[in-house]
Amino acid sequence: MFKKIIYSLAAVSMLMTATSCNDWLDVKPNNEQITADFWKTKEDVESVVLSGYCYLSDAVPTLIKWGELRGGTFYTTASEYKLQDFNLTPSHSICKYGTLYKVINAANSVLYYAPGVREIDGTYHESMLNAHLCEAYFLRAYCNLILMKNFREVPLVLQPYVDDTASFDIAKSSEEEVVAQIKADVMAALATGAAKSRYGDDTWENQGRVTKWALYALMADVCLWSEDYDTCKEYCDNILESNDNFRPAMLMDTSRWFEIFCPGNSNEGIFEVCWNYQLSGGTNNNFMSLWTLDNATANTLRFTTSAMDAIREECAELATLNPNAAGRVGRMELASVCLGISDKVIITGISNYANATNIYLWKYRGSQEAQIERNTEKDANFIIYRVADVVLMKALAETMTGDYPAAFKLLNQVRNRAGLGNYMGIADEDGYTLDERTLLEGILKERQLEFLGEGKRWYDLLWFGRVANYRYKDDFINLVIEGNMTTNPSWIRSVLANTNSWFMPLPQDDIDHNRLLIQNPYYSSK
């Protein structure tokens, strides 16, 4: 697989179709990218940096499914149901991670070749070189984080393909080694001094590129995952307590909620994968097709019963707080009631959620009218990090370090922005009365509702199950069972009793062709 990935990168050399970043790239075809003839100018380096972003955009549908299907908010009856039922075999296509390794190889190529280009191209200034290195470090680190969260131990590839003498037999690295590398890459990116508060002139081509805020969020993420809570809080504060003129901040005007996703790159956004149908010459993502207005459509994601119940419960609270509310209110603007009208969704009031038989994810539809035909542009952004995410990451870290009042306050920042009252109706001064487990449950539920369809739910549950030496393992398993709609609870309980099953199998093709690669333990006999 690694050899195929790298040869693919060389062979097609980022020649994209009309549906994949075609206007971002202008690079030589065939194998010229990996030869000395290619790496001559700053434009050559820039094109490979941008190819990394393009490959990341290609990976987004997989990122959504990896992050959602096991988490019990969405389910599918398509072949990926084996993922949500914890019944995968290594040959299943959902296990394939090739696109993420394409991102990593593009990043590795920039880190390896770009310094030499500066010696050739006199117009390739050090500041631009450092900016490219900064972006490459981030892309490699983020992809390694996602790979680790899904497979735990993965091959840690730090060198690009150079020539046929390169070995493609690469052993897995431990989770601790991958965490250390991710942290090292973030620190190396920051050490370049090139991480910007915002990228360039804010033209569409420069939107969605790495800033210092993205690096801070990524470091907070990996530190939370590895239970390095003090460092997690430090990097969250680099965002939340910044005095920078271009610092991100939560969007508080809920009448403008849709701007977070379309056109995207709002002040709340920290790092997002961008599409713009009009400015990119017709490029879209069609994420809305992953969800459906028609419950009979198989190849789609649908809200589970437990998730719809959670949404209805929140809507009931909103309706109580504001009985005259009409239209979309607070966070419920991110989902909407389906009233069975083909290709349309009509909102007549927040109370209608209580009687809705189906709830549809709205944020990727690409329009904000109250009554809408399907939007033809299909170009809402996919957000990897935004400020509400950082607020709630810090809330988790504060909880695990025993500062319950601070965690309670952070949790309520997000709840209050959505039009809700304080968690459990508790006054601010009484927040200290909550214990660790109660706070964690509240924050995780808040994250579930705040980040519907943003590919975070499974990783939140997985963190919960593993934290503090598996303190909440049983609670984790119960939450997974509660959200599952397609298999027997006894099966899930028996499978998840083995913590190795919480991760996916490595692709069988890699096991067959990489002599040093050993299958993940739970699947070694499958």
Task: Summarize, please.
Helix content is 44%, strand content 5%.
Note the topology.
Elements: H1 2-12, H2 42-68, E1 74-75, H3 81-84, H4 98-120, H5 126-151, E2 154-155, E3 172-173, H6 175-191, H7 212-225, H8 229-240, E4 269-273, E5 302-303, H9 305-321, E6 335-337, E7 359-361, E8 382-386, H10 387-400, H11 404-417, H12 436-450, H13 457-470, H14 473-483, H15 489-496, H16 508-513
Antiparallel strand pairs: 1-5, 2-3, 4-8, 6-7
Helix pairs in contact: 1-4, 2-4, 2-5, 4-5, 5-6, 5-7, 6-7, 7-8, 7-10, 8-10, 10-11, 10-12, 11-12, 12-13, 13-14, 14-15
Could you please describe the fold and organization of this structure?
It contains 16 helices and eight strands. With 526 residues, it is mainly α. The strands form four sheets. It has a two-stranded antiparallel ribbon with strand order 1-5. Strands 2-3 form a two-stranded antiparallel ribbon. The protein has a two-stranded antiparallel ribbon with strand order 4-8. The protein has helices spanning 2-12, 42-68, 81-84, 98-120, 126-151, 175-191, 212-225, 229-240, 305-321, 387-400, 404-417, 436-450, 457-470, 473-483, 489-496, 508-513; strands at 74-75, 154-155, 172-173, 269-273, 302-303, 335-337, 359-361, 382-386. Mean pLDDT is 84; it is low at 1-33, 337-347 and 368-374.
Describe the strand arrangement of the main beta sheet, using strand numbers: 1-5
Portion in helices:
40-55%
User: Structural class, judged by helices and strands?
Assistant: mainly alpha
Largest sheet: 2 strands, antiparallel
- Multimerization status: single chain
Query: If helices are DSSP runs of H or I spanning 4 or more residues, what is the number of helices?
Result: 16
Our estimate of the beta-strand percent is: under 5%
Rounded mean pLDDT is 84
Cα distance spanning the termini: 20 Å
- The total of beta strands comes to 8
| Overall outline | globular
Low-confidence stretches: 1-33, 337-347, 368-374
Secondary-structure element series? HHEHHHEEHHHEEHEEEHHHHHHH
Rg computed from alpha carbons, rounded to a whole number of angstroms? 23 Å
